[in-house]
Amino acid sequence: MKRSFCHRKGARTANGCSAGLFLSALFVAVAAFPPTCAAAQAPRKDSNAKPIVTVSAADQTAFGKDLFRQHCASCHFAETGAQKIGPGLKGLYVRLKFSDGQKVTDASLTRWIEAGGKDMPGFKEAMTPEQVRALITYMKTL
Question: Considering only CA atoms, which of 111, 114, 134 is closest in space to residue 123?
Fold first, then answer.
């Protein structure tokens, strides 16, 4: 004696089940395993949310060191306070003063890098704010 999953007589299809039972089984399967592509949709265009990117302090310092080599090393020493074309930057945060007597803070150093100084060009157009922050993170280690 063969059992059938379809218990209603006359509602069977060619394969032995009703369309209603097949659809309800399909609904249960879709509800239990929703498609993953909906979660991987692109962000809405009107969304102002920016992705959060975390960078370790060591990575930021290494990035800042590379930026120093590219933009600063031609005029400034990193290993010493001796004059090159511009003043040496070793111990800049320890000295607490720029060569012109201004107090060294993250904000004042950011302004100095972006606007430039007496004989130093500004780097506002050449560097992003993230790059300036990385450069300052490296300069704190000098």
Answer: 114
130 CB neighbour count, 10 Å cutoff? 12
Token digits of residue 124: 């506002």
- What are the structural domain ranges in the chain? 57-139
Q: Tokens 């302090």 label which residue?
A: 57
Q: How would DSSP label each residue in 39-83?
A: TTPPPPTT----------HHHHHHHHHHHHHHHTTTT--SS-SS-
How far, in Å, CA of 95 to CA of 133, rounded? 20
Please name the amino acid found at residue 87: P
Residue 103 — φ and ψ, nearest 5°? -70, 140
pTM of the full predicted structure?
0.61
**What's the pLDDT tens digit per position in 49-72?**
555 556 788 999 999 999 999 999
**Tell me: domain 57-139, CATH 3.30.70.1450, correct?**
no
* Residue 139 and residue 64 in contact, taking contact as beta carbons nearer than 8 Å: yes
